[in-house]
UniProtKB/TrEMBL annotation:
Example GO biological process: amino acid transport
Keyword hit for Transmembrane helix: no
CDD domains: PBP1_ABC_RPA1789-like
Residues in coiled coil: none
InterPro entries attached to this UniProt entry: BCAA_transport (IPR051010), Leu-bd (IPR028081), Leu_Ile_Val-bd (IPR000709), Peripla_BP_I (IPR028082)
Domain of life: Bacteria
Protein name: ABC transporter substrate-binding protein
PANTHER family: BLR7848 PROTEIN, LEUCINE-SPECIFIC-BINDING PROTEIN
Length: 392
Protein backbone atom coordinates (compact mmCIF):
# COMPACT_ATOMS: atom_id res chain seq x y z
CA UNK A 1 0.00 0.00 0.00
CA UNK A 2 1.35 3.48 -0.87
CA UNK A 3 2.67 5.49 2.06
CA UNK A 4 -0.04 8.15 1.61
CA UNK A 5 -2.76 5.51 1.58
CA UNK A 6 -1.27 3.89 4.65
CA UNK A 7 -1.26 7.17 6.53
CA UNK A 8 -4.87 7.78 5.57
CA UNK A 9 -5.84 4.31 6.72
CA UNK A 10 -4.15 4.82 10.07
CA UNK A 11 -5.71 8.27 10.49
CA UNK A 12 -9.12 6.83 9.61
CA UNK A 13 -8.71 4.04 12.14
CA UNK A 14 -7.60 6.48 14.83
CA UNK A 15 -10.54 8.82 14.33
CA UNK A 16 -13.21 6.18 13.96
CA UNK A 17 -11.81 4.27 16.89
CA UNK A 18 -12.77 7.07 19.25
CA UNK A 19 -16.48 7.03 18.39
CA UNK A 20 -18.77 7.45 21.40
CA UNK A 21 -22.39 8.45 21.78
CA UNK A 22 -22.78 12.02 23.00
CA UNK A 23 -25.43 14.65 22.53
CA UNK A 24 -23.19 17.52 21.40
CA UNK A 25 -22.11 17.97 17.80
CA UNK A 26 -19.72 20.84 18.46
CA UNK A 27 -16.89 21.42 20.88
CA UNK A 28 -18.99 23.66 23.08
CA UNK A 29 -19.55 27.27 23.99
CA UNK A 30 -16.00 27.74 25.24
CA UNK A 31 -14.64 27.69 21.70
CA UNK A 32 -14.04 31.18 20.35
CA UNK A 33 -13.74 30.08 16.73
CA UNK A 34 -16.78 30.03 14.49
CA UNK A 35 -17.81 26.49 13.57
CA UNK A 36 -17.20 25.00 10.14
CA UNK A 37 -20.68 24.10 8.95
CA UNK A 38 -21.10 20.87 6.98
CA UNK A 39 -24.57 20.10 5.67
CA UNK A 40 -26.36 16.78 5.35
CA UNK A 41 -29.78 15.83 4.00
CA UNK A 42 -30.57 12.17 4.63
CA UNK A 43 -33.55 9.81 4.49
CA UNK A 44 -33.28 8.86 8.17
CA UNK A 45 -37.01 8.03 8.26
CA UNK A 46 -39.39 6.73 5.62
CA UNK A 47 -38.99 3.87 3.13
CA UNK A 48 -35.24 4.41 2.75
CA UNK A 49 -34.53 4.69 6.47
CA UNK A 50 -32.53 1.46 6.50
CA UNK A 51 -30.08 3.39 4.34
CA UNK A 52 -30.35 6.84 5.88
CA UNK A 53 -30.40 5.88 9.55
CA UNK A 54 -26.91 4.30 9.62
CA UNK A 55 -25.64 7.18 7.49
CA UNK A 56 -26.99 9.68 10.01
CA UNK A 57 -25.57 7.79 12.98
CA UNK A 58 -22.17 7.56 11.30
CA UNK A 59 -21.95 11.25 10.45
CA UNK A 60 -22.95 12.26 13.97
CA UNK A 61 -20.44 9.90 15.53
CA UNK A 62 -17.64 11.04 13.26
CA UNK A 63 -18.23 14.73 13.90
CA UNK A 64 -18.43 14.14 17.65
CA UNK A 65 -15.12 12.24 17.55
CA UNK A 66 -13.52 14.90 15.37
CA UNK A 67 -14.55 17.70 17.72
CA UNK A 68 -13.26 15.83 20.74
CA UNK A 69 -9.87 15.84 19.04
CA UNK A 70 -9.98 19.61 18.55
CA UNK A 71 -12.09 20.00 15.44
CA UNK A 72 -10.80 20.92 12.03
CA UNK A 73 -8.12 23.57 11.48
CA UNK A 74 -8.58 24.59 15.11
CA UNK A 75 -12.31 25.17 14.67
CA UNK A 76 -15.31 23.12 15.79
CA UNK A 77 -17.31 21.33 13.12
CA UNK A 78 -21.08 21.72 13.11
CA UNK A 79 -23.15 19.08 11.32
CA UNK A 80 -26.36 20.70 10.04
CA UNK A 81 -28.60 17.73 9.47
CA UNK A 82 -32.07 17.43 7.89
CA UNK A 83 -34.27 14.37 7.36
CA UNK A 84 -36.13 14.34 4.03
CA UNK A 85 -38.03 11.11 4.76
CA UNK A 86 -37.17 9.94 1.25
CA UNK A 87 -39.11 12.81 -0.35
CA UNK A 88 -37.25 14.46 -3.24
CA UNK A 89 -39.16 17.74 -2.92
CA UNK A 90 -38.29 18.00 0.76
CA UNK A 91 -34.68 17.20 -0.05
CA UNK A 92 -34.47 20.08 -2.51
CA UNK A 93 -36.05 22.45 0.02
CA UNK A 94 -33.55 21.43 2.69
CA UNK A 95 -30.67 21.78 0.22
CA UNK A 96 -31.72 25.36 -0.44
CA UNK A 97 -31.95 26.01 3.30
CA UNK A 98 -28.45 24.65 3.86
CA UNK A 99 -27.06 27.13 1.37
CA UNK A 100 -29.19 30.22 1.96
CA UNK A 101 -29.78 30.03 5.72
CA UNK A 102 -27.17 27.72 7.22
CA UNK A 103 -24.26 28.82 5.03
CA UNK A 104 -22.61 25.39 4.83
CA UNK A 105 -19.23 25.03 3.12
CA UNK A 106 -19.99 21.54 1.78
CA UNK A 107 -22.58 18.78 1.87
CA UNK A 108 -22.37 15.04 2.59
CA UNK A 109 -25.70 13.31 2.06
CA UNK A 110 -28.35 12.36 -0.41
CA UNK A 111 -29.43 8.88 0.66
CA UNK A 112 -31.28 7.91 -2.51
CA UNK A 113 -30.79 8.56 -6.19
CA UNK A 114 -34.11 10.43 -6.35
CA UNK A 115 -33.31 12.83 -3.53
CA UNK A 116 -29.76 13.32 -4.77
CA UNK A 117 -30.85 14.22 -8.30
CA UNK A 118 -33.33 16.73 -6.87
CA UNK A 119 -30.57 18.45 -4.89
CA UNK A 120 -27.81 18.49 -7.51
CA UNK A 121 -28.96 21.69 -9.30
CA UNK A 122 -29.07 23.55 -5.98
CA UNK A 123 -25.47 22.78 -5.08
CA UNK A 124 -24.19 23.16 -8.62
CA UNK A 125 -25.75 26.61 -8.94
CA UNK A 126 -24.36 27.65 -5.55
CA UNK A 127 -20.93 26.11 -6.31
CA UNK A 128 -20.93 24.17 -3.03
CA UNK A 129 -19.26 20.71 -2.99
CA UNK A 130 -21.81 17.88 -2.69
CA UNK A 131 -20.68 14.32 -1.88
CA UNK A 132 -23.65 12.02 -2.49
CA UNK A 133 -24.22 8.70 -0.74
CA UNK A 134 -26.52 7.32 -3.47
CA UNK A 135 -25.83 4.71 -6.11
CA UNK A 136 -26.90 5.65 -9.63
CA UNK A 137 -24.32 6.45 -12.27
CA UNK A 138 -26.32 9.51 -13.39
CA UNK A 139 -25.07 11.30 -10.29
CA UNK A 140 -21.52 11.50 -11.66
CA UNK A 141 -21.99 10.84 -15.37
CA UNK A 142 -21.84 13.29 -16.96
CA UNK A 143 -19.33 14.81 -14.56
CA UNK A 144 -20.64 17.87 -12.73
CA UNK A 145 -18.09 20.27 -11.30
CA UNK A 146 -19.25 20.20 -7.66
CA UNK A 147 -20.84 16.73 -7.37
CA UNK A 148 -19.08 13.58 -6.15
CA UNK A 149 -20.25 10.26 -4.68
CA UNK A 150 -18.97 7.42 -2.51
CA UNK A 151 -20.97 4.27 -3.40
CA UNK A 152 -20.08 2.19 -6.41
CA UNK A 153 -22.22 2.99 -9.44
CA UNK A 154 -24.99 0.73 -10.63
CA UNK A 155 -23.05 0.23 -13.87
CA UNK A 156 -20.06 -1.11 -11.93
CA UNK A 157 -22.37 -3.42 -9.98
CA UNK A 158 -23.81 -4.79 -13.22
CA UNK A 159 -20.31 -5.42 -14.55
CA UNK A 160 -19.28 -7.24 -11.37
CA UNK A 161 -22.39 -9.42 -11.46
CA UNK A 162 -21.95 -10.29 -15.13
CA UNK A 163 -18.28 -11.12 -14.54
CA UNK A 164 -19.42 -13.63 -11.92
CA UNK A 165 -22.15 -15.05 -14.16
CA UNK A 166 -19.72 -15.46 -17.03
CA UNK A 167 -17.28 -17.32 -14.77
CA UNK A 168 -20.11 -19.74 -13.94
CA UNK A 169 -21.06 -20.30 -17.57
CA UNK A 170 -24.35 -18.40 -17.30
CA UNK A 171 -25.47 -16.89 -20.62
CA UNK A 172 -29.28 -16.54 -20.36
CA UNK A 173 -30.93 -14.61 -17.54
CA UNK A 174 -34.20 -13.14 -16.37
CA UNK A 175 -34.54 -9.58 -15.04
CA UNK A 176 -36.96 -8.25 -12.42
CA UNK A 177 -36.34 -4.64 -11.44
CA UNK A 178 -37.78 -2.00 -9.15
CA UNK A 179 -39.30 1.06 -10.83
CA UNK A 180 -37.80 3.44 -8.25
CA UNK A 181 -34.93 5.69 -9.30
CA UNK A 182 -32.23 3.20 -8.30
CA UNK A 183 -33.95 0.18 -9.83
CA UNK A 184 -34.67 1.88 -13.14
CA UNK A 185 -31.16 3.24 -13.40
CA UNK A 186 -29.44 -0.05 -12.61
CA UNK A 187 -31.68 -2.00 -14.98
CA UNK A 188 -30.81 0.44 -17.76
CA UNK A 189 -27.08 0.17 -17.02
CA UNK A 190 -27.24 -3.63 -16.91
CA UNK A 191 -29.01 -3.76 -20.25
CA UNK A 192 -26.30 -1.53 -21.76
CA UNK A 193 -23.40 -3.76 -20.73
CA UNK A 194 -24.94 -7.24 -20.64
CA UNK A 195 -23.92 -8.03 -24.21
CA UNK A 196 -20.27 -7.36 -23.39
CA UNK A 197 -20.29 -10.58 -21.36
CA UNK A 198 -22.07 -12.79 -23.89
CA UNK A 199 -25.22 -12.80 -21.74
CA UNK A 200 -28.81 -12.31 -22.94
CA UNK A 201 -31.89 -11.25 -20.95
CA UNK A 202 -34.73 -13.54 -22.06
CA UNK A 203 -37.38 -11.92 -19.86
CA UNK A 204 -37.61 -8.44 -18.32
CA UNK A 205 -40.15 -7.77 -15.52
CA UNK A 206 -40.61 -4.93 -13.03
CA UNK A 207 -42.45 -3.98 -9.81
CA UNK A 208 -43.44 -0.78 -8.04
CA UNK A 209 -41.91 0.51 -4.80
CA UNK A 210 -45.11 -0.23 -2.83
CA UNK A 211 -45.87 -3.67 -4.33
CA UNK A 212 -46.22 -6.38 -1.69
CA UNK A 213 -46.27 -9.46 -3.95
CA UNK A 214 -44.13 -10.14 -7.01
CA UNK A 215 -45.50 -13.64 -7.65
CA UNK A 216 -47.13 -12.80 -11.03
CA UNK A 217 -43.88 -11.41 -12.44
CA UNK A 218 -41.83 -14.27 -11.02
CA UNK A 219 -44.24 -16.84 -12.48
CA UNK A 220 -43.54 -15.39 -15.92
CA UNK A 221 -39.84 -15.72 -15.21
CA UNK A 222 -40.27 -19.27 -13.91
CA UNK A 223 -42.09 -20.29 -17.08
CA UNK A 224 -39.46 -18.83 -19.42
CA UNK A 225 -37.54 -21.68 -21.01
CA UNK A 226 -33.76 -21.72 -21.00
CA UNK A 227 -33.08 -19.39 -18.06
CA UNK A 228 -29.94 -20.02 -16.01
CA UNK A 229 -30.15 -17.21 -13.41
CA UNK A 230 -32.21 -14.20 -12.33
CA UNK A 231 -31.03 -10.66 -11.52
CA UNK A 232 -33.00 -8.21 -9.35
CA UNK A 233 -31.79 -4.59 -9.55
CA UNK A 234 -33.47 -2.78 -6.68
CA UNK A 235 -33.29 -1.55 -3.10
CA UNK A 236 -35.59 -1.22 -0.13
CA UNK A 237 -38.10 -3.92 0.79
CA UNK A 238 -38.81 -4.94 -2.82
CA UNK A 239 -35.79 -7.24 -3.24
CA UNK A 240 -36.60 -9.01 0.05
CA UNK A 241 -40.15 -9.65 -1.19
CA UNK A 242 -38.77 -10.90 -4.51
CA UNK A 243 -36.43 -13.23 -2.64
CA UNK A 244 -39.22 -14.65 -0.47
CA UNK A 245 -41.61 -15.09 -3.42
CA UNK A 246 -38.78 -16.67 -5.40
CA UNK A 247 -38.39 -19.37 -2.74
CA UNK A 248 -42.15 -19.81 -2.34
CA UNK A 249 -42.46 -20.58 -6.06
CA UNK A 250 -39.69 -23.15 -5.79
CA UNK A 251 -37.41 -21.44 -8.33
CA UNK A 252 -34.00 -23.09 -8.06
CA UNK A 253 -31.99 -20.86 -10.39
CA UNK A 254 -29.20 -18.69 -8.93
CA UNK A 255 -30.59 -15.35 -7.72
CA UNK A 256 -28.48 -12.19 -7.86
CA UNK A 257 -29.30 -8.99 -6.00
CA UNK A 258 -27.72 -5.53 -6.21
CA UNK A 259 -25.39 -3.69 -3.86
CA UNK A 260 -28.52 -1.70 -2.94
CA UNK A 261 -29.43 -4.41 -0.41
CA UNK A 262 -25.97 -4.95 1.05
CA UNK A 263 -26.97 -4.89 4.71
CA UNK A 264 -27.93 -7.32 7.43
CA UNK A 265 -31.49 -5.97 7.30
CA UNK A 266 -31.94 -7.56 3.86
CA UNK A 267 -31.03 -10.98 5.26
CA UNK A 268 -33.43 -10.43 8.16
CA UNK A 269 -36.28 -9.31 5.87
CA UNK A 270 -35.77 -12.12 3.36
CA UNK A 271 -35.26 -14.79 6.04
CA UNK A 272 -34.20 -18.32 5.06
CA UNK A 273 -35.08 -17.55 1.44
CA UNK A 274 -31.91 -15.42 1.23
CA UNK A 275 -29.70 -18.49 1.43
CA UNK A 276 -27.52 -18.68 -1.67
CA UNK A 277 -28.27 -15.17 -2.93
CA UNK A 278 -25.26 -13.45 -4.51
CA UNK A 279 -24.48 -9.75 -4.77
CA UNK A 280 -21.56 -7.36 -5.18
CA UNK A 281 -20.71 -5.41 -2.03
CA UNK A 282 -17.89 -3.48 -0.33
CA UNK A 283 -15.32 -5.22 1.86
CA UNK A 284 -17.04 -3.88 4.98
CA UNK A 285 -19.54 -6.75 5.04
CA UNK A 286 -16.74 -9.30 5.40
CA UNK A 287 -14.35 -7.22 7.51
CA UNK A 288 -13.14 -10.09 9.70
CA UNK A 289 -12.76 -12.40 6.71
CA UNK A 290 -10.35 -10.13 4.81
CA UNK A 291 -6.71 -11.13 4.43
CA UNK A 292 -4.36 -9.59 6.99
CA UNK A 293 -2.51 -7.64 4.29
CA UNK A 294 -5.66 -6.26 2.65
CA UNK A 295 -5.24 -2.44 2.65
CA UNK A 296 -8.88 -1.95 3.66
CA UNK A 297 -8.78 -4.26 6.67
CA UNK A 298 -7.64 -1.68 9.27
CA UNK A 299 -10.30 0.80 8.19
CA UNK A 300 -13.26 -1.55 7.86
CA UNK A 301 -12.57 -3.50 11.04
CA UNK A 302 -12.18 -0.34 13.14
CA UNK A 303 -15.28 1.26 11.64
CA UNK A 304 -17.32 -1.92 12.19
CA UNK A 305 -16.17 -2.30 15.79
CA UNK A 306 -16.70 1.35 16.66
CA UNK A 307 -20.10 1.70 14.98
CA UNK A 308 -21.49 -1.49 16.51
CA UNK A 309 -20.14 -0.62 19.96
CA UNK A 310 -21.62 2.87 19.82
CA UNK A 311 -25.02 1.98 18.36
CA UNK A 312 -25.62 -1.63 19.34
CA UNK A 313 -26.61 -2.29 15.74
CA UNK A 314 -24.88 -4.28 12.99
CA UNK A 315 -22.78 -2.25 10.58
CA UNK A 316 -24.05 -1.73 7.04
CA UNK A 317 -22.41 -0.59 3.84
CA UNK A 318 -24.68 2.44 3.83
CA UNK A 319 -23.18 3.81 7.00
CA UNK A 320 -19.84 3.10 5.37
CA UNK A 321 -20.78 5.33 2.45
CA UNK A 322 -21.41 8.12 4.94
CA UNK A 323 -18.10 7.48 6.66
CA UNK A 324 -16.22 7.57 3.37
CA UNK A 325 -18.00 10.78 2.40
CA UNK A 326 -17.14 12.69 5.57
CA UNK A 327 -13.58 11.35 5.52
CA UNK A 328 -13.09 12.47 1.92
CA UNK A 329 -14.43 15.91 2.80
CA UNK A 330 -12.34 16.34 5.94
CA UNK A 331 -9.23 15.16 4.10
CA UNK A 332 -9.90 17.68 1.33
CA UNK A 333 -10.32 20.55 3.78
CA UNK A 334 -7.08 19.57 5.52
CA UNK A 335 -5.18 19.46 2.22
CA UNK A 336 -6.74 22.70 0.98
CA UNK A 337 -6.07 24.39 4.34
CA UNK A 338 -9.23 26.31 3.57
CA UNK A 339 -13.01 26.19 3.90
CA UNK A 340 -13.57 28.04 0.63
CA UNK A 341 -15.95 25.80 -1.37
CA UNK A 342 -13.95 26.10 -4.60
CA UNK A 343 -10.71 25.04 -2.88
CA UNK A 344 -12.51 22.17 -1.13
CA UNK A 345 -13.93 21.04 -4.47
CA UNK A 346 -10.49 21.10 -6.08
CA UNK A 347 -9.00 19.08 -3.23
CA UNK A 348 -11.74 16.42 -3.39
CA UNK A 349 -11.15 16.05 -7.12
CA UNK A 350 -7.42 15.54 -6.52
CA UNK A 351 -7.96 12.66 -4.03
CA UNK A 352 -5.48 9.85 -4.66
CA UNK A 353 -5.44 6.42 -3.00
CA UNK A 354 -7.77 7.28 -0.13
CA UNK A 355 -8.55 4.06 1.75
CA UNK A 356 -12.25 3.91 2.62
CA UNK A 357 -14.72 1.27 3.70
CA UNK A 358 -16.00 1.04 0.13
CA UNK A 359 -12.67 0.91 -1.67
CA UNK A 360 -9.56 2.92 -2.56
CA UNK A 361 -10.63 6.24 -4.04
CA UNK A 362 -8.65 7.99 -6.77
CA UNK A 363 -10.59 10.83 -8.37
CA UNK A 364 -9.84 13.08 -11.32
CA UNK A 365 -11.49 15.80 -13.42
CA UNK A 366 -13.17 13.02 -15.45
CA UNK A 367 -14.00 10.68 -12.54
CA UNK A 368 -15.87 11.97 -9.49
CA UNK A 369 -16.21 8.51 -7.91
CA UNK A 370 -12.79 6.95 -8.27
CA UNK A 371 -13.75 3.29 -7.81
CA UNK A 372 -13.68 0.34 -10.25
CA UNK A 373 -14.99 -3.24 -10.23
CA UNK A 374 -11.93 -4.31 -8.22
CA UNK A 375 -13.29 -2.50 -5.17
CA UNK A 376 -16.40 -4.70 -5.19
CA UNK A 377 -16.37 -8.12 -3.50
CA UNK A 378 -18.76 -10.78 -4.80
CA UNK A 379 -20.55 -12.18 -1.75
CA UNK A 380 -22.98 -15.00 -1.07
CA UNK A 381 -25.39 -15.47 1.83
CA UNK A 382 -24.71 -18.68 3.75
CA UNK A 383 -26.08 -19.57 7.15
CA UNK A 384 -27.61 -16.12 7.50
CA UNK A 385 -24.31 -14.30 6.96
CA UNK A 386 -22.11 -12.93 4.19
CA UNK A 387 -19.23 -15.01 2.84
CA UNK A 388 -16.94 -14.52 -0.16
CA UNK A 389 -18.60 -16.15 -3.17
CA UNK A 390 -16.85 -19.10 -4.74
CA UNK A 391 -16.64 -19.61 -8.49
CA UNK A 392 -18.49 -22.77 -9.41
Amino acid sequence: MPHTAARRALRAAAVIGSFTITSALTIGPSSAADPIKIGSVLSATGPASFLGDPEQKTLKLFVEALNKKGGLMGRPVELVLYDDGGDANKARTFATRLIEDDKVVAMVGGTTTGTTMAMIPVFEDAKIPFISLAGAIEIVEPVRAFVFKTPHTDKTACQKIFEDMKSRGITKVGMISGTDGFGKSMRAQCMKVIGDYGITALVDESYGPTDADMTPQLNKIKNTAGLQAVLNPGFGQGPAIVTRNYAQLGIKLPLYQSHGVASKSFIELAGPAAEGVRLPAPALLIAEKLAADDPQKPVVTEYKKSYETATGQPVSTFGGYGYDGIQLLVGAIERAKSVEPQKIRDAIESTKGHVGTTGLYTMSPTDHLGLGTESFRMLEIKGGDWVPAEVK
